[in-house]
Amino acid sequence: MVPGTSLVGQIPQNPQRRAPAEFSALRGIPGRGKKKFVAIQIGGRSFVDEGVDKCLDTLQDKGGVNVLMPTVFTYGTGLAGRQVHGEPLPDHGVQSYDEIHGGSYAKVHPEFYSDSPIREVRAPELGDFDVVADVIPKAKAKNMQVSALFEEASTQG
After folding, report:
1. Is 70 exceeded by the pLDDT of residue 11?
2. Which of 35, 53, 103, 114 could bridge to 121 as Cys pair (CB 3.0-4.6 Å)?
3. Does residue 2 form part of some domain?
4. Domain enclosing residue 58, as ranges
């Protein structure tokens, strides 16, 4: 999708069914609400480096973010690390590249996987940090919507 464009109006609508007002407001449909949909994809590393509360405050105060998409599962460096190696580091947080193993950035419950080949999928690089338990309740307390992000991409060979 091209930045600055919108799918609103391009998606066929069922004329018999109307979206609740809060959804129209989030979409930023002219005349149907004033609240814009401002979302960000963000990895757990940002919360660990800067602190959950400080990070959420910065996102809201400086970016106007009202929808948080925290990375819960990935093996890719783009959503899990500070920055892809070779690209400029952001102007905040720890100023060094990190090594990403990847996996689940939330607590894994082995009892749900007992009959599957899924075993050790917990990402080790953030220790016991749990993006679901540590971030989502605080984001919701700040009236931010949350949609967990799962990425299947891998940067491993």
Report:
1. no
2. 103
3. no
4. 21-89+96-152
State the pLDDT at residue 70.
94
Query: Does residue 10 fall inside a structural domain?
Result: no
The pairing of strands 145-146 and 67-75 is parallel
- Model confidence at 1, in pLDDT bands (50, 70, 90)? very low
Q: Under a CB-based contact definition with an 8 Å cutoff, are residues 103 and 73 in contact?
A: yes
Number of domains in the chain: 1
- Scan for tokens 């109307």, then name that residue: 18
Give buried/exposed letters for 120-152 (b at 16+ CB in 10 A, else e): eebbebbeebbbbebbbebbeeeebebebbebe
Task: Mark out the alpha helices in 64-144 (DSSP H runs).
Answer: 77-80, 131-141
Q: What is the pLDDT of residues 101-155, one digit of tens each?
A: 788 889 988 888 888 887 788 888 889 999 999 999 999 999 999 999 888 765 5
Specify if 108 maps to a domain: yes
d(CA 28, CA 70): 22
The verdict on pTM exceeding 0.85 is: no
Question: Is 14 a member of any domain?
Answer: no
**Whether 89 contacts 82, CB under 8 Å:** yes
